[in-house]
UniProtKB/TrEMBL annotation:
Pfam families: YkuD. Coiled coil: none annotated. It comes from Bradyrhizobium rifense. Residues 49-196 form the L,D-TPase catalytic domain. This is L,D-transpeptidase family protein. GO terms for molecular function: transferase activity.
């Protein structure tokens, strides 16, 4: 083993789930757990970093359904970062990154063949718009919830994104402060597992 690697990178990934992968310099796993006494709030642990998060208004649910307000329980992987290039510079991350445009949206209609996928929409067309007037979607970590296979009605547009000022509950996402998001982005990559629940 290379003696110049930092101590936290020398550990075997099986002995410590929060170790950095030597090949990719990314955490192998992060965890999201509900806070004691409040299922709409939680804690995200990524290596030595532990941050408060807001969860869905329905808490963490094993059987996620469209519109239930629940954050899905399970193991997921981050797919890519979406960010507002008109408001922020590109953050440091190992994730593929894409600037949000006015046409970017997410399909939340279980009857649509593009359900739970990115779509382009013109003015007045439906879909969860990624370019918002508020700051909630200034940084979005897209995860692979309900993607392989996509099942109609099992939930869509579940992201890690920025929190409201009062840390109010989400519609099913995991949200955090901008400072926490920027720290998290430096630690994770496409191979990082996100364990919720």
């Amino acid at each position: 083993m290379n003696s110049t690697l930092p101590v936290h990178m020398k550990n075997n990934a099986n002995s410590n789930p929060y170790t950095m992968s030597r090949r990719s310099a990314q955490l192998s796993m992060i965890r999201v757990k509900p806070a004691a006494g409040n299922p709409r709030r939680g804690w995200l642990t990524a290596g030595q970093l532990t941050i408060p998060v807001a969860l869905g208004r329905g808490g963490i649910l094993a059987n996620k359904r469209e519109g239930d307000g629940g954050t899905p329980r399970g193991s997921f992987r981050p797919r890519q970062l979406w960010w507002r290039g008109d408001r922020h510079s590109r953050p440091q991350t190992l994730l593929p990154a894409r600037i949000i445009t006015g046409a970017d949206a997410w399909c939340e209609d279980p009857g649509d063949r593009h359900y739970n996928q990115w779509i382009r929409r013109g003015e007045g067309e439906g879909g969860d718009r990624l370019k918002r007037a508020d700051q909630l979607y200034d940084f979005i970590i897209e995860i692979d919830h309900n993607t392989r296979p996509r099942i109609a009605g099992r939930g869509s547009a579940v992201f890690l994104h920025l929190a409201r000022d009062n840390f109010g509950p989400t519609a099913g996402c995991v949200s955090m402060t901008k400072a926490a998001m920027l720290q998290l982005l430096r630690l994770i990559g496409p191979r990082t597992r996100i364990i919720i629940g």
